[in-house]
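Hey, I'm writing a tutorial for new members on how sequence and structure tokens pair up, and I'd like a real worked example in the thread rather than a made-up one. If someone can provide the structure for the chain below, I'll link this post from the tutorial.
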Amino acid sequence: MAETPGDTATLNDEEYSLGAHAMTTDSPHSQSSGVDIHRAEEDFNTLSRTLTARSETGDRLKWQRSMLTVKGEKDLEKGIDTMSEKSGVFDLREYLSSSNDAHQGAGIKHKHVGVTWKDLQVDVVGSADSKIYVGTFGGAILNFFLTPFLFIWSLIAPLFPSKQITTRPILHKSSGVLKPGEMCLVLGCPGSGCTTFLKTIANQREGYANVSGNVLYAGMDATEMAKFYKGEVVYNEEDDRHIATLTVAQTLDFALSTKTPGPNGRLPGVTKAEFNEEVLATLLKMLNISHTAQTLVGDEFVRGVSGGERKRVSIAEMMATRARVQSWDNSTRGLDASTALDFARSLRIMTDVLGQTTFVSLYQAGEGIYDLFDKVLVLDQGRQVYYGPPKEARAYFEDLGYKSLPRQSTPDYLTGCTDPNERQFALGRSSRDVPCSPESLEKAFLVSTHGQELAASLDKYNLYMATEKADQEAFRAAVVADKKKGVSKKSPYTLGLSGQVRSLAKREFQKKMQDKFQLFTSFTLTTVLSFVIGGAYFGQPLTAAGAFTRGGVIFAALLTTCLDAFGEMPMQMSGRPILRKQTNYSMYRPAAVSLANTMADIPFSATRILIFNVVVYFMTNLNRSAGGFFTFHVFNYVAYLAMQGFFRTFGLLCKNFDVAFRLATFFIPNFVEYSGYMIPVDSMKRWLFWIYYINPVAYAWQGCMENEFMRISMDCNGDYIVPRNGPGFSTYPSELGPNQVCTIFGASEGSSFVTGEAYIDAGFSLNASDLWKKCFVVLCAFTVAFQLTQIIALEFFPQYDNNMSINVFARENDETKKLNQALRERRAASAKANEEAKARAMEVQPEHLDVETGDTSSETTAAANTRHRKTFTWEGLNYTVPVPGGTRRLLHDVYGFVKPGTLTALMGASGAGKTTCLDVLAQRKNIGVIAGDVLVDGRPLTSDFARGTAYAEQMDVHEGTATVREAMRFSAYLRQPFEVSREEKDAYVEEMIELLELQDMSEALVMSLNVEARKRLTIGVELASKPELLLFLDEPTSGLDAQSAWNLVRFLRKLADQGQAILCTIHQPSSLLFESFDRLLLLERGGETVYFGDIGADSHVLREYFARHGAVCPGNVNPAEYMLEAIGAGVSPRIGDKDWKDVWLDSPEYQVVRKEIDAIKARGLAIPEADKKSLSTFATPLAYQLQIVVYRNNLALWRSPDYIFSRLFVVAFVSLFVSLSFLSLGNSTRDLQFRMFSIFWVTILPAIIMSQIEPLFISNRRIFIRESSSRIYSPYIFALGQLIGELPYNTMCALVYWVLMVYPTGFGNGSAGTNGTGFQLLVILFFFMFGVSLGQLIAALSPSVQVAVLFNPFISLVLVTFCGVTIPYATMIKFWRSWIYYLNPYTWSISAMVATELHGLVIQCKPEEFVVFNPPSGQTCAAWAGDFIGYYGGYLENPNATDACQYCQYQVGDEFYTPLNIEYGDRWRNVFILFSFFVFNVFATIIASRFLRMRSGRPLPLSVLCAYYIIFYYITIRLWS
């Protein structure tokens, strides 16, 4: 049998003959990199998970298992290993051979896709010096008024000659070929076009103005690949984007469920479940993350796996796609050197075995990784300056005239040759005779031997692909075989739509089930709300008194469930990056997401609404029949589904929440107002009544009303009989007599009973026969229609996050223009000086990389030149965290110190506890138990410890709307001593910008920076604080190119030489970078110490320590990489039989460390302690903090035009539309009610503000959590700053609402006159302030937006229900009336507004509004109804008539509001009670911000908040009363 290894258990779907491949590809890897396949197989053996051997018996391949499956594994967090080291080891050679034979026997084709690109060029919009500027609120207002003119211009513009759009190339013409089984390393400085090249090669072309040139995949063009084989060409981005609340196993299981081949693509006898189980186990073991299977993936705010482990989850997810052309963009960022090498080896093996075509871009790639590649592509500012064998690349650039730098790794050397600041010329050469510019380097390559060979091989391979179609045909057949049954051959998906929906629904269900807190909160609030509504309308009587309120409870219940779906809108935007990534992987089509979300939500929403409906329906005494209840429930739930689809559609169509909020609230007032309850159809304005017929809420309400009233009859009695008796007189019959009338709709003369059908027919023009044939059908049609709109939005109008490769700038002012000009001048002068220095150095300097490189041990020098600085020590450091089922220890007995003037590295494998150790030392942990001593000069940490340190975290969290300069200045202003002048702080910031090479980005907004620039900014923000005690940095070089990393570490070295103490974690340092550090703290898994001590020149101290214990580092190997392999940090076994932690504990070096710590403590205690009275938590006074924070918040809001303009637009629209509905109100009884309703609409304003302000507050709180850890500013300042920033814009919104409300409606006709309208402005202003403060309070109490939005319907409905409008004071149940009525801020505000507007307003009934009755024979109307009118008010239009008496219920507006417990004289008291509510909310928000500074967690219990709420308001109301 030929030795033709097949595909592995990792991503298995084809046969692959290495012998045949060698003939096809001319054995590229064995020739170019010197790594043969047999050696690769041996290396891969260390990466493979323990698997059972497969043996072929007869025609079937049987699996014999001797391993623990992933399903049966136990989590390491529970203290049990996931793998047994004694399990049988898988024989890779035997497995590959048998697997390949099995594939051949099964007829499964291979998928080999060679890639060629010729003259590939990518253009973007704009010229070389053009910039995109951030929008502002002022610009949004201007654009709004210009929109009509711009629209007209867009219609006539095509009639005129158009100017061509200016574009510029970011990737110049590039050509090349990469055959199946080959790997290409793409190198270049940041901004050179590496990411652009990888994305276009992976056929991801969106976001670019133009992509020209010809890219072929196995002879197929890019259009065909995108249409039919999209999932076979994939791109792995640099950022890790996952659902944080899923476990690692769930994340990968989902990816596998969408990419598992069908029966024709798997080996016979292997089920889908077995295939997925084996692949999952292999991926976890290959990437050494088996122990994380049941751990949450997490993110910067959800605790989960480490950053390096999260990166490996991203790698595993893309490996699960089984794509044959893969582009990896800096996928080793955040990985330690050993794991990065293991990853590169894995790619090498899979490329060889599976015949993949692999493109990889890496920063800081070591020589071991570099040697694994077949080709290397070097880019310089988008130009291809080299493409060819890696072994010949260094010699090529040396032949051009660049200096040979043997101590520098080849990738760093190649990149350095394109960097004007790094490159060095050979002796006797200079920029005059060496090609230096990107253009000259490109030209030199094209005319070189390598360039000519590339052109010849490209033409040859294109000819081969055009004539030999074997690979292409096999590829097409293999893709078809992969598909599940029923999937179209033309579909780019492996799984059909139903399978995609099933997998997505399962994932969504897992998300919901694992978010127990949100689940509990939503069900609890819904249940409580149902009891509130049920209690408010408890026991509705079957009398005239229950007619209108029965409709009210139906309307309230329906509105509650429908508007509850409003919380769906922000949820549709949170997962967009993940949606984009996974659809690009062809895991599923976007439409499947909509269907899956609906399906997964139904079990939860149906149960929740059923509970709600049961409570409301039966507590309020709606018709107690099975048919009545289930009809009510069905209509209510279908209406919820329709509105859920409606809000989700806007969430999917709009680019951000503010735009969606603006559009959705355009419809919400119409849904409420034109449902038929608030304004009957016959009272609607003729130009607006059509809204009623396109309103899904109207059909739901109509159906529920018909369902209820078709089943009941009502007795007319009490207050609904005119005339009737009152206290002190009994003139009229107690029962309905012949000279009395019933005033409710549908009443018939002489009958005291009114049928429900007659009532809804006369009052609302509803017909019970329309229940199913019209209402239900139309409601279902709306539900289906909105589901379709979601599908259309996802498929054809996808909205993704902004392209982070495009920088957005703030416009320069006079100051920043001067500063930026100075930066450019200094950079030019520095570049010129560097060139001159290099020219001089070439004549005299020996072969060194950098003249500054030398012995980095400088403690003595630093100490001699600086004042006394304190020393930081830690002893016996242990850290234990709670996990399901118990606890887990992350750090164990760690000892160490950081002296002033030293640079200490903290290293270890990914997941060894490096970041955890740094967090614990920096006092950044708020969960778990920390044991041990962390001391400064032998003394416990004081309150100013956090202020005296700086911590550059691994996650780059910043205020997105600030510029780079503003972000650094903010840090400098608030963290450097207050005594330092602002000018000095500004000057230091300019130094940091220059040091971090951010001169061109100084005015760029943080949210538009790429990964590398954000990392530099994170470091710059911390450096700007000038920490006095200690500087912590977590992986500061991750994401940076080699030169940037070297510059940064060199700067840290300079800081240390000046006396700064620095402790930082570091991944993948080169040997030169590693030598810049003084000491090393090396950890292994479990937080165990392996080594702490000096590194020494050329790492001799560290090398000698390891050599003494059996791990001898070869002279040509990077010690930083070797020591990790020696301790078994990767998948390779450790060197030696004894655990390295035990070696350390038994070593003399360990005893020396313990003694040194004791000596440090003794020296520190000998120095007199500083006066503790002078210690301060913050560096600046609170007033100064408030000034700086408010300025930043105002600037952020000004640069967020969608946020502010959306609120202004919504407020103006609501006010305008309500005013149009109640335009020019008169003095009739119906108009009196409409005036009340118009005022009542003010209560909607806080709900609008709350729903918009909560996401922003929680987002800003995330930034504050990061900043508060460094004690930059007080939590009180954070809360006040958020409030103050909002108030000016809310004042403007209040003014707009007031103008559009009072004048079109015709307010001010009562006794208060125009002065009354001014008073209404004050109330509206207080209402806006209350809404802002309440929204911020809810956000401060909530751990997430998902939880915050759950409180909004509950709070809004309670406040609206019990303010005395929907349920009048007289008819409100005594229980509610006795306390919640008075604790309701809306009670006081509505009272003030209604009394002001209606006081003294003369009422004149319209003819149809008069109640007509006949007096007894011989009596006039006045004589018969005189006693009644004298007590109840109103007037008779014809008092002297003897028949057809016309009675109007009200004579003046006071008669309307007096029964509602409203007094005109209390209006000033009432409005300031509303203001008191605002004050309370502010104080509560400040307190919540102080005590709930959490990355994730539970809010303050609602009961506690309610208790404080009740106590405060009770005292306030009593004082005002």
